[in-house]
Design brief:
7-stranded parallel sheet, single chain, binds hexanoyl-coenzyme A, 7 strands, globular
């Protein structure tokens, strides 16, 4: 196997990134563009998407904003068909769009449950279904789902998101096997606490909450969106050609550090 030139490894390829107007989604879209790829960013807020388009175009590639709510399966199918018509193909899909808020489960309304699970679980499937059909027809592609480690260890206050992301892991593993022989790879990335406005506002809105989160990360810091995008780029690239059905955890060992007992080493 020859080592590919990573600086242009996405040249001639097209990516669709959902939730690409901010945070991790924006960073992944820009990272894709920096390696020469064409990118379409899909989301609800036109202005935010256009900011990503500007950042991507600065790398000399073609980029476009697609205004669409991933909860609307008809709109998703139309939007995906439009991207394929304009660019001829989609080589990479990043299911990054998410919705989240912290609430005691007993206070979560059915509509609140539905809002989050519709975005995270149903939206991921709608996009995967629409794009996956094109990938199968064109002979391959790669799909990356952005999740969180509470998909398997759970987390108080985020039952909607944890349940939905657990479903996305099961979807990932199922499709990796179902589509593996047809050259479509499907993986997850599980970022830990990342310095983004969206996650901060939803999950650590106060200085105290932020300090608690920080204390839970053995690496002692938050991730930057760019370093999460770097790991995502690996999974999306041919460097990960034999990796499918897997979850790459990029969390500074946060979830492994969840202690059942107090840390005896902390007392020495
Ligand atoms: C309780 C809430 C609530 C809150 C909304 N709801 N916020 N309930 N506490 N803080 C309830 C509403 O009361 C309503 O139910 C239902 O949810 C739908 O709310 P809407 O605002 O009408 O929905 P909508 O405008 O579609 O917004 C969807 C959303 C919103 C999920 C609620 O937060 C959103 O769009 N977020 C996108 C951005 C985001 O959240 N990013 C953070 C992702 S970070 P009722 O019953 O009143 O009608 C992330 C990282 C995880 O996921 C990893 C960490 C390590």
């Amino acid at each position: 196997m020859t080592t590919p030139d990573t600086s242009t490894e996405f040249a001639g390829r097209v990516a669709l990134v959902t939730g690409g107007g901010s945070g991790i989604g924006q960073a992944i879209a820009v990272r894709w563009a920096a390696a020469g790829g064409t990118v379409a960013v899909l989301g609800r807020r036109k202005e935010a998407l256009e900011e990503t388009v500007r950042l991507a175009e600065a790398h000399g590639v073609s980029a476009e904003a697609v205004v669409c709510d991933v909860r609307d399966h008809v709109a998703v199918a139309d939007a995906v068909d439009d991207v394929v018509t304009r660019h001829g193909r989609i080589d990479a899909l990043v299911n990054n769009a998410a919705g989240n808020f912290v609430v005691p489960s007993e206070d979560l309304s059915p509509n609140g449950w539905k809002a989050v699970t519709d975005i995270v679980l149903n939206g991921t499937f709608y996009c995967t279904h629409a794009v996956g059909r094109h990938m199968l027809a064109q002979g391959g592609g790669t799909i990356l789902n952005v999740i969180a480690s509470y998909a398997w260890h759970g987390h108080p206050g985020t039952v909607h998101s944890a349940a939905a992301k657990g479903g996305v892991v099961a979807m990932t593993r199922t499709l990796a096997v179902e589509w593996g022989a047809r050259n479509v790879r499907v993986n997850c990335i599980a970022p830990g606490p990342t310095e983004t406005q969206g996650a901060g506002a939803a999950l650590w809105p106060t200085a105290e909450a932020r300090a608690d989160v920080l204390a839970s990360v053995p690496a002692g810091r938050f991730a930057s969106p760019e370093e999460i995008a770097e790991s995502a780029a690996f999974l999306l690239s041919d460097r990960a050609a034999f990796v499918t059905g897997d979850v790459l955890v990029a969390d500074g060992a946060q979830w492994l550090g969840k202690a059942i007992y107090t840390d005896p080493l902390a007392r020495t």
